[in-house]
């Protein structure tokens, strides 16, 4: 009987630092306890040569192409990471497949090499210019910590994340996005244009004076979000280190305003989720992920969790929007082989 390898990889929530990975900035994600599991065995049929596959199978074919795998494989996938919710279901898929295939075929790839392969799968095969945050946290997450990722230097720094008497509430708006549709790529192109205009390698390192020197309009707004979000990440990490959760919450809320107004990647349902959570006592709230739908997160005192849930649900009902799904998350570990 042929050997089967089973591996799993987590979804993620980015606490702060949105759209900074491809701008040479920093972000602070945690891995979720919601995962994608890939079961992989050597197949008996012919390997499909046409890699122009639709839907989620394109991600799998992209991983195999990036790893240089041509032999037929039997692959089955199961997942409880919501698709299109901004929780990185795609990276959970590609990382679980990459880890399982590497183990099954004895490729001997390092985690860095697997990370590069999964990024290539999205960038070069699927057509989503991902910056690498999602794949990195999926492969390198540690329980009980967020991971400060600096995409200018490539460093990964664990930051303890266990807020006392507070919960991180995920609010899934049920508005689904598809980053492959082009809006994500358009934001990245705007940032590249702004960096070129300023003669910067990394837009996240732009100063206020440089931002002011940009022509008014869209590029200036995009650059302002990137530069100020980088400052918010640094402030958020400091707040966590000293236990100033009120300041951490305020920075989350400021991040959402910037994503809404300057980067223009929010939507009415995300704005409503943030507004209703704050009204009910959340210390801070923001959209998370690429935007255009998906999830918001709120930092909520444990004693106010029910009130926040009710406030958000009532707000959505009053707006005749689809009922949101809400759940509490903590910081979990990264991808692993379960059966090898």
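Q: What amino acid sequence fits the structure above?
A:
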């Amino acid at each position: 009987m042929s050997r089967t390898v089973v591996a799993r990889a987590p979804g993620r929530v980015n606490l702060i630092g949105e759209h900074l990975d491809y701008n040479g900035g920093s972000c602070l994600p945690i891995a979720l306890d919601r995962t994608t599991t890939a079961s992989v065995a050597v197949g008996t049929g012919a390997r499909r040569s046409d890699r122009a596959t639709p839907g989620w199978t394109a991600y799998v074919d992209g991983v195999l192409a990036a790893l240089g795998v041509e032999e037929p494989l039997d692959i089955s996938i199961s997942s409880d990471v919501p698709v299109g919710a901004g929780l990185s279901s795609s990276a959970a898929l590609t990382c679980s497949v990459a880890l399982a295939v590497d183990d099954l075929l004895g490729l001997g790839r390092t985690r860095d090499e697997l990370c590069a392969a999964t990024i290539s799968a999205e960038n070069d095969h699927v057509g989503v210019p991902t910056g690498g945050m999602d794949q990195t946290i999926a492969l390198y997450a540690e329980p009980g910590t967020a991971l400060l990722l600096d995409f200018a230097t490539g460093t990964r720094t664990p930051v303890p994340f266990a807020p006392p008497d507070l919960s991180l509430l995920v609010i899934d708006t049920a508005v689904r996005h598809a980053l492959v549709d082009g809006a994500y790529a358009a934001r990245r192109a705007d940032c590249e244009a702004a960096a070129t205009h300023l003669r910067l390698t990394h837009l996240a390192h732009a100063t206020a004076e440089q931002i002011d020197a940009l022509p008014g309009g869209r590029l200036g707004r995009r650059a302002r979000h990137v530069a100020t979000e980088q400052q918010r990440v640094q402030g958020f990490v400091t707040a966590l280190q000293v236990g100033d959760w009120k300041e951490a919450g305020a920075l989350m809320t400021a991040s959402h305003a910037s994503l809404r107004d300057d980067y223009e990647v929010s939507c009415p349902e995300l704005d409503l989720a943030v507004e209703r959570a704050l009204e009910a006592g959340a210390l801070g709230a923001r959209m998370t992920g690429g935007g255009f739908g998906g999830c918001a997160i709120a930092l909520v005192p444990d004693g106010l969790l029910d009130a926040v849930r009710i406030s958000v649900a009532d707000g959505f009902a009053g707006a005749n929007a689809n009922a949101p799904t809400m759940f509490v998350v903590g910081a979990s570990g990264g991808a692993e082989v379960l059966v090898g």
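Q: And what stands out in the fold?
A: The mean pLDDT is 94.
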